[in-house]
Amino acid sequence: MRSSAENEQRERLKCVVHPSADIASALAAAELATLIRRNNAAGRPTVLGLATGSTPVRLYRQLIRLHREEKLSFKNVVTFNLDEYHGLPRTHPESYWRFMHEQLFNHLDIPPANIHIPDGTVPRAEVFAWCRAYEEQIRAAGGLDVQILGIGRTGHIGFNEPGSGRDSRTRLVTLDALTRRDAARDFVGEANVPRHAITMGVGTILEARRILLLAWGEAKARVLADAVEKSPTDSLPASFLQGHPAVELHLDAAAASELTRLRHPWLVGTVDWTPAITRRAVVWLAQQIGKPVLKLLDEDYSEHGMADLLTEQGPAYGLNIRIFNELQHTITGWPGGKPGADDQHRPERALPAQKRVVVFSPEPSDDVLGMGGTLRRLVDQGHDVTVAYLTSGNLGVPDEEAAMAAELVIDLAGTGTEFAQTVRRQLGAKAAYESDTPEIRQLKGVLRRGEARASLQACGLAAARARFLDLPFYEQGRYRQFRIGEADIAAVAALLREVQPHQIFATGHSADPSSVPALGFEVLRRALALAAGEAWRADCRVWLYRGPDREWEPAEIEMAVPFSPRELTQKIQAIYHHKSQRSQSPVVAAGLHESWQQAEHHNRAIAGRYDALGLAEYEAIEAFRRWRES
Ligand code: GLP
């Protein structure tokens, strides 16, 4: 996409889109390093406002590298953190105090006295005075030279939730339901997530002389586009960054994907009408004015900024038919290819009639949630399917489930109960929020593997076809702190070389780069690169499925597998087996409490969209897109 003043015309905040979060973080780190060096040389302190969350972790790794390898000194750096959960002691594994020390401060030469983090243990009655003193400390330090920000899915910066005013100052706030749900994974259950936090105010943040906001992954795309392109409003606090004289947003492609210049480029400038953009524009137009594709008129195109498309590829009649056919050809009941059929316009090739298929599931349950119906079809149609679980997902199991399993084993009495007794004892002794012992994680892993096997059987696949890779990055890590290594890549490469698949199904390619699905996809990508020249690679297609939190847009879909009402029910029954993953959350978007409800909702929604575009009306559709290395 050409970048020009014209196609950025809707953007009220300066956005820089980078090829990856790593590259963006390295640039942000370089900017900080230049400033720190300049101030160090002049004998001036550098005052940094810092953020927590997964987003700045890469930036912090870069700062640590600069300190170690390029002698960047932090002796004269003073830091103020944005926020902290209220009610958490510093030692809590999820406290921001602990996060900042583990992710950054412990690895630098910064004097402890220079570090300021809101204190989550201040009694309620003293919080107000404490917050005023925090502001005073920032002022006394000379104000913030640079403030680093992430963004929450509610549009919060720091913990300034919707409703926070432009002039708000450091204070105690109540966390939004969505924010608490997003944190539920870290706290293993939403019930454990604190309800309050202390945060710098929007006004405090805006006083920084320079602001760098970082964002990665598609989950942030919608809220970012709103913050950048809509009028500032207190229902989206990040939008108040508009008007700051020196703010810059560094985004990866997934986080930037909802900006008009990327999502609807025809609305903001001249575009290269490639087949992909043409399809997107036609589908958008049909959805925008609520007409099926075949009923779009020439004037519909010209009234919606697409006159040049008509000139190039019109009139509407022929263009409509072409796009309709393209969409029609994405639909197939044969996800592994239809034997004996002319496959020229089908998503998958007919030969070989029986394919070797590997489905990669970042954690157990991702497979059935994303493609349970398709999985069953592949099995029914005689393909040789292996499901590879990259991780055991043990971090996602609540203690109560593990306690129940330990009791069960003990009840069975006899031999082999020692391990269960150990786990029961450890669970009993485990302080709230403490990390799991290796034994607890082991038992939780056993639970999830059992659920995965039962779920596969419900899809018609023998449990023996499950392969549990237990990738080391997950077993040795915790959320937000995972790091993939050679051993992870080698394990996936070995499986691929053994199976030599014709089809691979995977997910996570545009997820938050610190998430398990994104890391899983990165491992797969590198494993495929290792096998680049091998014969089987030339005849292997990679299909992407999505998690239950987001579906593909019809214009992006390259294979749509439709389901009957009965097949949809079967899929949901397969998901039920993932009992440990039942939601413990009382408040969820659109009343969809359980992941199976979300999957059902999305599968029906895609079918509804196909129907509205004038295609056949199905009960539900699972959708896929091909991944091409380039
Ligand atoms: C928390 C923090 C924010 C952060 C947000 C996003 O709410 N208080 O400062 O920006 O999470 O988190 P993540 O970077 O993990 O997506």
Would you mind describing this structure in some detail?
This protein has about 625 residues and is an alpha/beta fold. The chain folds into 3 domains: about 10-260, 3-Layer(aba) Sandwich (Rossmann fold); about 265-330, no CATH class; about 355-625, 3-Layer(aba) Sandwich (Rossmann fold), CATH 3.40.50.10320. It is built from 22 helices and 17 strands. The chain has helices at about 20-40, 55-70, 95-105, 125-140, 175-185, 200-205, 220-230, 255, 260-265, 275-290, 300-305, 305-315, 315-330, 365-380, 400-410, 420-430, 440-460, 470-475, 485-500, 515-530, 565-575, 595-610, and strands at about 15-20, 45-50, 75-80, 85, 115, 145-150, 170-175, 195-200, 210-215, 245-250, 355-360, 385-390, 465-470, 505, 540-545, 560-565, 620-625. The strands form 3 sheets. Strands 1-10-9-6-2-3-5 form a 7-stranded parallel beta sheet. Helix 7 (about 220-230) links the parallel strand 9 (about 210-215) and strand 10. Helix 1 (about 20-40) crosses helix 2 and helix 17 (about 440-460) packs antiparallel against helix 21. It starts with 13 loop residues before the first strand and ends with a strand. The protein binds 2-amino-2-deoxy-6-O-phosphono-alpha-D-glucopyranose (GLP). 2-amino-2-deoxy-6-O-phosphono-alpha-D-glucopyranose (GLP) binds next to loops.
